[in-house]
Amino acid sequence: MQLLSKQYLVAVALIVVSLKAFAQSSTPAVDTGAVREETRRYVGTPATVTGMGTINTLPKWTSTSGALADSVVSEVGGKVGIGTTSPGATLHVYGAADRDVFAGFGPDPGAGPSMNFGYAGISIGRGAGFFNVRPDAGSTAPNPSLRFDTVNIERMMITNAGLVGIGAFVTPSQLPRGRLDVLEPTQLGSSVGSSALVTTFEALTSNRVAENLWFVRSAAGSDYNTVRLRNGISNDGSFFTPDTTRTWWERDPGADTQSWGTAAATYMQLTPAGLNITGNLTVTGNITSVNGDITGVHVLNAVYMDVAEWVASESPVVPGTVVVLDPKDGRRVVASSRAYDTSVAGVVPEK
User: Looking at the whole model, is its pTM more than 0.85?
Assistant: First the structure.
C-alpha cells in the first residue's frame, strides 16, 4: 500500500511539472530536478492504517497506532443506524423493547439541564415514548418548560408545574393559569358582533357535529363588560357562527345574566331579577315553595289532585264548604258565593 501511494504521488508530481513546462513553452520539456522536488513535497511520510471491518459499518480508531474496528454506527441505502446494522428509518436508534434508549441535548442528559426524548421501555414500560426537560436549578418559572412552535411562533407550552397553555403566551402575565389554558392571541374586536372561536369539539357522523365556544362582543367596547361567552352546538357547516348556532348557552359577566336559545332566538334568560321564559312552562312534580306571587294576564288553570292541603282563609269556613281563590289575594281561599264559579279551589274536608 505504501509503494502504491508513492507511485501515485510521483505521477501527480510529473503531471504538475509537465503542465508548468507546457505553460512556459510551446515545446514541452521535463525538468528532472523539479520532478524530484515535487515528489519530495507530495510524498512525505505515509500513515499506516490496519484492521478489518464489516460492510456498511462506520469504522473507529481503537488505538493511537492507527488500528480500526467496527463502531455502533452503520449506513445502509442512505439510512443511518445506531446500535443496529439494519436501520428501518433515515435515523434509527435501536433499543430493546424492555430498555431505555433516548437522545439528549444540553450539558447533562442524565441530571440536567437538558432536553431528552426517546423510548422508555424500562423506566415507564414497554411501548412508552417520552419527552422530558431535566431539572435546572438556575432556571426561572415557567422553565424548565417544553415549547412547540410553527412558522417561528409559539403555539403551545407545558410549564415546569405541568400547566398546558395553547396560544402565544408571550408575557409573564399571560402564562397558563390552569391545567389547560387556551389563549386567543388576537384581541377581540370592539364592534358589536365581533367574535373569536376559542375551542371546538367534534364528532364524526354523516355531517359535522361540534360543540363550539366563542367570545362575542354584545355592544361596542373594549373591556369585559361587553363580552359574552357563548357555547353552542353546530350540526353542519352552516351553524358555525355565534348567531346561527343551535341550542346555545350564553353567559354575560357584565350584566350577570345567563341565556339559552337557538340561532337568533332567546327562549330563557336568568337574571338577578328573576327567570324569564318565552313559551310554555311544564312542571313534572310539585312546586313546593312559592315566596311571592304567581301573576299573569290569564286565569291560572290548575289540575288539583285528591290531596288535602292547608290553605289560608280570611274568614272561618266549615267542612263541606266549596271554596274559591280569593280575588283579593291569590294565596287565600274564600267560600264560593255563586254557581259554576271557574275559580273553585276545592271543598273543605272534615279533617
Answer: no
